[in-house]
Amino acid sequence: MLEIRPALDYLIGIDSDGCVFDSMELKHKECFIPCFIDAFGLQGVSRYAREAAEFVNLYSKSRGCNRFLALVEQLDWLGQRPEVRQRGVMVPRLSGLEAWIARESKLGNPALEKTVAENGTTELKQILAWSRAVNESIAQMVRDVPPFPSVRGCLERLSQRADLAVVSASPTAALTAEWREHHLDKFVQVIGGQEHGTKGEMLAAAAKYPQDHVLMIGDAPGDHRAAMANGCLFYPINPGAEEASWRRLLDEGIDRFLAGTFAGEYQVQLLAEFNEFLPELPPWPVVED
Questions:
Q1: Which ranges constitute the DSSP H helices of the chain?
Q2: How many separate domains does the chain show?
Q3: Of 80, 113, 141, which marks where a domain is finished?
Q4: Going by fewer Cβ within 10 Å, which terminus of the chain is more open, N or C?
Q5: CATH number at residue 15
Q6: According to the model, what pLDDT value does residue 141 have?
Q7: Average pLDDT, the chain
Q8: Which domain covers residue 170, as residue numbers?
Q9: pLDDT band at 2 (very low <50, low <70, confident <90, very high)
């Protein structure tokens, strides 16, 4: 669990990948997807595997979800494509992973490593190897990716009045490295990654603050759901319009939040715009079992 101790009157939860840093495309297209194709023997349908992975992780309402949840979903979409079935390529169904997800709340490598050490199946060992390969690829590939314009200005202003916490589904070590690289860690009280539980669990600290004094900043529907589950306000960083979103937060959103005029009509307007950016269904036909 993420420990957030109130020092100021407000709390700001902030997602990282694709929200603060323009790193989502780089991480998924250059790190996650090549490891995905290699680990699960999808070379024969690599084009479709890439499209499924990009849809789930970047261009759908599943954007930004935990890597293990995304892995299950992208394999499901891939297995339903007519082109994949026509080629006769076996798309694995990870029932062991699904069972592990159902009983584990901290969906990260440490929890999976413990399970594998205690009673690891071949499937879970394969998934752990994939996840480790992703981390290694990210560590090698991802660097010199600055925060979006206006991010630093927002953090500087907010940190004067609010406790700031990174709330992310990425590994904590990677988050810490990125925030330190760009000297943003000085603005936040804590950095919470996948090892701390779900985003909703991390935002449970909202109960320590007055009503409407907690704001979650995120770029994915899962960030909004985590905010709603804890009675928090939500400011969306719209995918594909990140620069404009941060500028709007700097120019008007912060003032509204601190003045107590964020909730209501303004929040509804932001959410209506956000909902239009990401679809629920892929643009290709599927074959249901």
A1: 24-27, 33-39, 46-57, 67-79, 82-87, 95-103, 109-119, 122-141, 151-158, 172-181, 199-202, 221-229, 242-248, 254-259, 265-275
A2: 2
A3: 141
A4: C
A5: 3.40.50.1000
A6: 95
A7: 95
A8: 10-23+148-275
A9: confident
pLDDT in tens, 189-230: 999 998 898 899 999 988 999 999 999 999 999 999 999 999
137 and 53, same domain (yes or no) = yes
| Alpha carbons 31 and 265: distance in angstroms, whole number | 40
Sheet with strand 214-218: strands edge to edge: 190-192, 162-167, 10-14, 214-218, 233-236
d(C-alpha 186, C-alpha 180), whole Å: 8
**85-137 pLDDT, tens digit each:** 999 899 999 999 999 999 998 899 999 999 999 988 999 999 999 999 999 99
User: How far apart (Å, rounded) are the C-alpha atoms in residues 138 and 136?
Assistant: 5
Please indicate, yes or no, whether residues 255 and 215 belong to a single structural domain of this protein: yes
CA 7 to chain centre: 26
Instruction: Calculate ∠ Cα 153-28-71, nearest 5°.
Output: 120
